[in-house]
């Protein structure tokens, strides 16, 4: 299996500048850039060229609710999460990810960084790049490097520095 690197952000809530900054920093240098919704930007904004983006509960317009990105040997399932009721638990998100046969399922909505594995699927919430909630009061995005054996997940701050307490490796 190839080695892939992804950048994942979410819940920028009108903060266009940081989306542009992350795009400018990584486009063409990583395999994919994902935005998991609640950008509050128009779906027609050219900023989305080169970004895989889904619809959040605060978005309007022509965004997909669910997006499944098939790479040569890796499937990434992406949704904001509100439609699958993730405020109340992850059963529906998990079932949906299983249906997609997802290697990675990435979501947002909760504004809290999270990484866990269930079956073959690695679940990743990149947190919010603009409005963090919960104990970790830091605006974050995620960088994921994955190969056949393991995934490495780092969270980065808005000044693109690794937030070390959240770095982890997960065996596949
Ligand atoms: Mn949100």
Taking the alpha carbons of the first and last residues, their distance comes to 12 Å
Order of helices and strands: EHEEEEHEEEEEE
The ligands bound in this entry are: manganese (II) ion
Global mean pLDDT: 97
State the domain count. 1
Beta fraction? 25-35%
Radius of gyration: 14 Å
Low-confidence stretches: none
**CATH architecture term:** 4-Layer Sandwich
What spatial form do the alpha-carbon principal axes imply?
Answer: globular
Instruction: Identify the strand order in the major beta sheet.
Output: 3-2-1-9-10-11
- CATH fold-level name: Purple Acid Phosphatase, chain A, domain 2
Query: Helix fraction?
Result: 10-25%
Family: Belongs to the metallophosphoesterase superfamily. YfcE family.
InterPro entries: Calcineurin-like_PHP_lpxH, Metallo-depent_PP-like, MPP_YfcE, Phosphodiesterase_MJ0936/Vps29
Protein name: Phosphoesterase
Cofactor: a divalent metal cation
Task: Write structural notes for this entry.
The protein has 172 residues and is mainly β. It has one domain (4-171): 4-Layer Sandwich (Purple Acid Phosphatase, chain A, domain 2). The chain is built from 2 helices and 11 strands, in the order βαββββαββββββ. It has helices at 16-26, 91-99; strands at 4-9, 32-35, 52-53, 66-71, 74-79, 104-106, 113-118, 121-126, 140-146, 150-157, 168-171. The strands form 2 sheets. Strands 3-2-1-9-10-11 form a 6-stranded mixed sheet, covered by helices on one side. The radius of gyration is 14 Å and the shape is globular. It binds manganese (II) ion (MN). The site of manganese (II) ion has 7 residues, from loops.
């Amino acid at each position: 299996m190839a080695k892939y690197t992804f950048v994942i952000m979410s819940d920028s809530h009108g903060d266009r500048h940081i989306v542009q900054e992350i795009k400018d920093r990584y486009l063409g240098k990583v395999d994919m850039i994902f935005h998991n919704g609640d950008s509050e930007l128009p779906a027609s904004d050219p900023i989305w060229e080169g970004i895989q983006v889904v619809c959040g509960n605060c978005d309007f317009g022509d965004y997909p609710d669910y997006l499944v990105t098939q790479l040569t040997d890796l499937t990434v399932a992406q949704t904001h999460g509100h439609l699958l009721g993730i405020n109340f638990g992850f059963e529906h998100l998990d079932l949906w990810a299983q249906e997609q046969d997802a290697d990675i399922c990435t979501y947002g909505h909760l504004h809290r960084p999270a990484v866990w594995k269930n079956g073959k699927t690695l679940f990743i919430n990149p947190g919010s790049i603009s409005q963090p909630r919960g104990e970790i009061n830091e605006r974050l995005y995620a960088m994921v490097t994955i190969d056949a054996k393991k995934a490495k997940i780092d969270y980065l701050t808005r000044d693109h520095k690794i937030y070390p307490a959240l770095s982890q490796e997960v065996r596949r």
